[in-house]
Amino acid sequence: MNAEKCGRIRSTLVTSEEDIAQILASLANRKRLQMVTSLLEGPSTFEKLLKETGLGKTALAHHLGRLVKTGLIKHTGRGQYELSGDGAQLLGAVGEAYRISKRQQRLDAARRADYIQKVHNKRRWKPRMKELEVRIVELKPMRVASIRAISETPEHDAGKKMRSWAEPRGLLRDIESHPVFGFNNPDPSPDQKEYGYEFWIRIGPDIQPEGEIQVKQFSGGLYAVTTCDVKGEPAKNIPETWHRLAEWVKSSKYKSGKHQWLEKAHDPDASDEELVLDLYYPIEK
After folding, report:
1. CA–CA separation, 29 and 24 (whole Å)
2. Angular region, 56: left φ>0, alpha ψ -120 to 50, beta rest
């Protein structure tokens, strides 16, 4: 790169570093990159992107909004999206730069070597599932505020109600003192799109029932707990981790308990893409 071109690029980076950082951050996510790559083929609809990404409606709307805000895509009508001219140019530059990069060449070489090794290996190659990390936790009895929603997206709907009630009271500022738990109520069924989800948040004796908010007394209990990184695929990763946790309990010295199973988000405000859950499976000695 000659000195003139280098100076011109440096000047642009320095004077526009904040905006460039926001644009690059909007691309630095696998699902958002998948969306803009899909739009390279032409305009698309919200419903089509929903199927292609496997995201929930709320999460998809969040990611699309971020891409629209940085000007990489355009919202051209009700549920209609297309790649902007700037977006197409940026994707072209990124794709071409990566294609000819030494990093890409090294990764291609490593993939080819790995493939050759597997083909010539006489033993069966089978990826091993990562061993489940489980800890035993005892939840003490607690007084909880309860809010529930029944819809096609009850987690998001009940969560919105819970936050609008809890945030003005300062309950979400300290999730150690006021942890938030959730669970299906009622469970999903194959023949119905709607199901229920209920949130609990631990409260003190001064808070009373109000509107849709009920107050309940949870008796506590013993739990086998593991962590689930949702990675933007809740419909796949959460049930799969629950199944593995149930299998762990069956093979352990514990038996299934009758108290409420629970899910606890590390960050109650996280989107599906960043969501990490602790799954609490009820057990008895």
Report:
1. 10
2. beta
Q: How many CB atoms lie within 10 A of CB 42?
A: 8
pLDDT digits (tens, 9 = 90+) for 253-272: 999 999 999 999 988 878 87
CA distance 162 to 175: 13
Is 3-96's fold the same as 135-284's?
no
- DSSP class of residue 193 equals S
Residue closest to 159 by CA, chosen among 189, 192, 181: 181
- Give the C-alpha separation, 7 to 4, whole Å: 5
CATH number for the domain whose boundaries are 3-96: 1.10.10.10
Domain ranges across the chain? 3-96, 135-284
Q: pLDDT tens for residues 79-118? A: 899 999 988 888 888 888 877 877 767 766 666 666 555 5
* More confident: 178 or 273: 178
CA atoms of 282 and 93, how far apart (whole Å): 52
**Fold that domain 135-284 belongs to in CATH:** Multidrug-efflux Transporter 1 Regulator Bmrr; Chain A (3.20.80)
Q: Is the dihedral of CA 117, 122, 123, 126 positive or negative?
A: positive
Question: Which pLDDT value is given to residue 271?
Answer: 81
> For 138-150, how does the pLDDT look when each residue is reduced to its tens digit (9 = 90+)?
999 999 999 999 9
- Which residues neighbour 224 within 8 Å (Cβ) at sequence distance 6 or greater? 134, 135, 136, 245, 248, 249, 252, 254, 280, 281, 283
pTM for the full model? 0.56
